[in-house]
Amino acid sequence: MNWDKILCVAAGTGFAPFRGYFSEKEFLLKNNQAAPKVTLFFGVKHYEGDFIYREKVEEWSKTGVLDKLHCAFSRDPLSDGSLPKQKTYVQHLLAKEE
Question: What is this structure's pTM?
Answer without folding.
Answer: 0.86
